[in-house]
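Changelog-linked ticket: adenosine-5'-triphosphate example.
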Amino acid sequence: MLRLVNVSKRYGDVWALHPMTLDVCPGRTTVLIGPSGCGKSTVLKIIVGLVEPTTGSVELDGERLRPDNVLRFRRRMGYVIQEGGLFPHLTAEQNILLMPRHLKIPDEVVRPRLQALCELTRFPPDALRRYPAELSGGQRQRVGLMRALVLDPDVLLLDEPLGALDPMVRAALQEDLKAIFTRLGKTVLLVTHDMAEAAFLADEVVLMDAGRVVQRGTVADLIERPATPFVTQFITAQRRSGFMPVGARGSLP
Ligand SMILES: Nc1ncnc2c1ncn2[C@@H]1O[C@H](COP(=O)(O)OP(=O)(O)OP(=O)(O)O)[C@@H](O)[C@H]1O
Ligand SMILES: [Mg+2]
């Protein structure tokens, strides 16, 4: 069980995140959604220990994240950063195997794992030899996902994993992600600014605004029982950009 307890982040005079407490349901997909700058990436960076919170703490299975256990924590989490974060001078395979190599995990363990990940993410194994610049956007996202999954983490943290893709590729990857989440049964915390994507992937949605959680629940809860006028405004704005809550692919349960 992953918990944030009273976690906040202040940069100078600005609160990127006001104190927030959040339980992330084990084995389910929770989606953080909200306008640009509302603090979504900050939440993920605090969880993986890249950003130190101003107040509060992160707990995994009741244990608090501290400077002396941050690396052990990190190994239990797979993280796909916003904009992919692949090293351009390393091939796809070298990117995926960075941590296993660093941990000196033997080849006979790593090879079958790599093959299984290619199958899982439907990535052509021939392309493992290529550099990120020689892959399509969708393939790069798959490499990022494989890198996050390679150590078989308990928790998967994905920051806009489908951000910069064209709608067709994005829809295909959404289907694949959903199948992967269902198959692996991991605890997933995914950031998006796209309500249709949230509706399609999430068991539960956490809507944020200006560094605060405004409402959590299913997409249907947000539409039918908005906690504040902002919730309705956000959904209306999403509708204008094509979000179809009923009958469409990202439909209501
Ligand atoms: N290192 C930093 N120094 C100062 N301010 C920061 C820093 N990192 C983030 N911020 C600010 O904190 C706020 C939250 O940023 P964050 O990256 O979490 O937003 P976000 O919800 O992920 O936005 P987006 O959807 O655009 O990715 C923003 O106002 C941002 O400018
Ligand atoms: Mg962000």
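Closing comment: Example verified and attached. The two ends are 25 Å apart (CA to CA). The first helix runs from residue 40 to 47.
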